[in-house]
Amino acid sequence: MNLYGGKILWIDLTSGAVTTQSTSDYAGMYVGGRGVNARIMYDNVGPATDPLGPENVLAFGAGPLSGTLFPGCSRTDIMSKSPVTNLLGNANVGGDWAAELKYAGYDHVVLRGRAESPVYISIRNEKVQLRDATELWGRTTYETHHAIHEELDDPEIKVLCIGPAGENQVTFATVHSNVGNAAARTGMGAVMGSKNVKALAVRGTKGVTVADPKAFFAACMEAHETVRGADYFEEISTIGAVRGEYAYVLSGIEAGGDAHETAPDFDPEGKTDYHAFWKKYGHKRTGCMGCPVHCMENYTMPEVGSTVLSCELYTQLTWEVRNDDMPLWFELILRCQEAGIDNTSMALTIQWLMELYEKGILDAGLTDGVPMEWGSREAISGVLESTVARTGFGHVVAQGMKATAEHLDARIPAERRGGVSTYDYAMQVNNNPMYGINPRMNSMALSYAIGRRSDCIQDLDMHQFDTVSAPVYPGWSEQERLEAIAHESELATALTGKADAGDPESYEGKAQIVHDMGVTTGIPDMAGSCKWHTKWLYLDLTPEHYAKALTAGLGRTVTAEDLLRASLRLRNVERALECTMGRRRENDTIPKKEFNKPVSRGHWKGRLGVDPEKFEGMKDEYYTLRGWDLETGVPTAATLHEYGLDDIAHDLAERGILPHWTGESVDAPVTGHDR
Amino acid sequence: MYAVITVDTDKCTGCRTCEIACSLHNYGECNPSRSRISVIRTQDGGLITTIPVVCQQCVKPLCLNMCPSEALSRDPKTNAVVVNEDRCLGCRTCVYVCPFGAPSVDPRLGVAQKCDLCGGEPTCVAVCPKKALSFVEAEDESLRRKRAGVRKYLDQLETAAG
User: Fold this and answer.
1) Are the Cβ atoms of B16 and A284 closer than 8 angstroms?
2) Among A530, A548, A668, B125, which one has the highest count of C-beta atoms within 10 angstroms of its own C-beta?
């Protein structure tokens, strides 16, 4: 099976049974990676599934381009029912695990049940073993990789594992690759911990075959050249996302940092100079398999340790919690990596507690005697450590924001909370702590609200993002700022046909941009490569690049149109599944307090802030583009039929949630899957 | 005059594009375990080191000299040490004697495989996104190293000066 490992590996941890299924059962319709994972989820989990119960299913997926010469062919898509949102969970990680899985002859590994005692899964080509992990339990992520290499006497083994946070089923625990990056969001590490699985160790010596090696080589190199020739390549491949993150902080658009307008002012130009930190402690640039971008910085700090980081890691445990102590920040990041806990969720939870403390709602008595003061080492470190270990107040925090709010509400009189729940102060969507990106930009608010897995990251409107952050981009002249804004506005207008689409204060065309970005980024997620290489991060790969490589590799014509259609199909599977789990239009929103609230500092002071009615208008537009029912947000029978998902329409009808269903049968069900 | 593949370990990010491209070019499949260049990754906790290892086409090649079946010879055009697959026994002597472990015996073909410089245009060098691999005249290599060393020294001076 060209481009595919060929098999899906099913492991029942309760019985120890290992079975395989042909990937071709799914690949025709769902391509791979996130696409196939979503369908596996639809068929195996539902509203009654307890995310941390043995009945939950945890799927790891590579895609057809994973392990090939296509740029950024490194990604593993991980999906399960989420213990954070109680809806569909999903996270994606780089490294070289997905490639190795392909080389071993598999595209997906699906875990169900629960092992009686801690195990790790060792896969070497056809040989699959459940091995005792009692000795590994309690070890950090980095120690676990090393210990498995030692035990199996093979340093080439690629490992995905959890740390102590995952073992302790901290709801926002992560799954870590050996590079040090994480499948961080929606608690996939907690699900793995609940199954008593410490790690998946893979080694493969088979190749990924391609139909036309010469044409495939050429298509992949064309994609490489496109990425390397993109405007943003020079910056992202030399200083990573450092400067961009800096700009977001300076422009006051960070979600919590700005949301908590009463927090002390914070001068990121002062002590939190990421560039100086890189110069002092940078060891090397690194990245994932097959990636020309190498977006990660590998740091080493004497007496503390070493780790890699990139992107949002820079702003969460600094700006969001008002910590300007860079060595402390690095210690905390390293600790998150070792413990296997989501740095974003942790930082945003701590930030929430700090705001509650500052407002006089929360006193130190409720947080193990530690005052939750802005920037306090004791507070940040204390909550992190107790959460990982689930001791004291950390046992509460580990259950997520909603459970923490219930705990606090029961102990804090209503009048001290301003008559509302402490949950109303939290920056969350469906209990998922929000990224450091401001929901007070119109299209960002929409991205958060409609985002699969309840976050914004798949559907970001980079045009608006940049129009907002451009005024403070470090090192830019006034001319460069104006040019950047004009450029983004042009692109936004070209895409939507609306003159105002690039204007951050307009609502015009925003739904179209968010819709379009979500469809485009679905393609790399299915292909098993990194979405950073698309326009998502201005690295210019288009659906055509993927189509060309897939055509040469598979030996049959795949068009950009086919891939866009598959991406839309995938999104409808995910959405339908989330709807069976209770998601409706009213869940597609941002925290109430974020409406009608202009930015309080920085360039945009006094501006932005989303109008709730116009926000609902954007949702109408978005649902219309997607073919989802305006009233409920559930995909309609016509939409599901359009994407060959009549069986799902049937299922929704049986559950009584198919929009406007009158009890008559929908179109004939699809039997089996399109091969 | 002949050219060799040289490695700048500071530049290598460990992406292994070279490995995938090598196997695709030579065998028509993406398979690092068949690649003739390997990026060796060592990790001390989160501290990462990645060093590509590839045949250096030695001046006095042990593989060529020790081969019991005289299956290795020097390509007069490229100066690469190349395998005559018809003569090769698959005995692994070349694998054992090479200071880098550069040759391998391919399990599917049953004969030794090693870097042949792709006939004078090495694929790995062409695809390396960081230019960590170069194909340079052997006599220039030492001077290039000296220059790189000086650049590093100047950078350190600059950093020290703040």
Assistant:
1) no
2) A530
pLDDT at A188 > cutoff 90: yes
CA distance A36 to chain B (A): 22
Which chain B residue lies closest to A334 (C-alpha atoms)? B46
Q: Under an 8 A CB cutoff, do A306 and B45 touch?
A: yes
C-alpha–C-alpha distance, residues A22 and A6, integer Å? 6
What sign results for the dihedral spanned by CA atoms A495, A498, A499, A500?
Answer: negative
In CATH, what number is assigned to the domain containing residue B87? Answer: 3.30.70.20
Q: CB distance from B28 to chain A under 8 Å?
A: yes
**Do B28 and B1 sit in the same domain of this protein?**
yes
Chain A residue numbers with beta carbons less than 8 Å from the beta carbon of B23 are: 207
Name the residue ranges covered by the structural domains of chain A: 7-203, 237-433, 442-539+559-591+600-654
CATH assignment of A442-539+559-591+600-654, among 3.40.50.2000, 3.40.50.720, 3.40.720.10, 1.10.599.10:
1.10.599.10
Asked if B24 has any chain A CB less than 8 Å from its own CB, the reply is: yes
The sheet carrying A296-301 orders its strands as: A282-286, A296-301, A305-309
Asked if B76 contacts B51 with a C-beta cutoff of 8 angstroms, the reply is: no
Q: What is the pLDDT of residue A255?
A: 65
Least confident of A171-175, A477-481, A611-615: A477-481
Q: Is A291 helix (H, G, I), strand (E, B) or coil?
A: coil
Tokens of A50: 């307890």
The C-alpha atoms of residue A512 and residue A520 are separated, in whole angstroms, by 12
Residue B142: what residue type? S
Answer yes or no: do B121 and B161 share one domain: yes
Query: Does any CB of chain A come closer than 8 Å to the CB of residue B15?
Result: yes
Q: Which residues of B touch A306 (CB under 8 A)?
A: 44-48
**Do B88 and B71 form a contact (C-beta atoms < 8 A)?**
yes
Structurally, at CATH architecture level, domain A7-203 sits in 4-Layer Sandwich (3.60)
Task: Tell me whether B44 touches chain A (CB under 8 Å).
Answer: yes
- pLDDT tens for each residue of A543-584: 999 999 999 999 999 999 999 999 999 999 999 999 999 999
Return the percentage of chain B with pLDDT > 90, whole number: 80
Chain A CB contacts of B107 under 8 Å are: 205
Q: Does domain A237-433 have CATH number 1.10.569.10?
A: yes
Q: Which of B14, B45, B127 sits opposite A305 (nearest CB)?
A: B45
Report the gap between the CA of B104 and the closest CA in chain A (Å).
14
Domain count, chain B: 2
Range of the domain at B75: 57-114
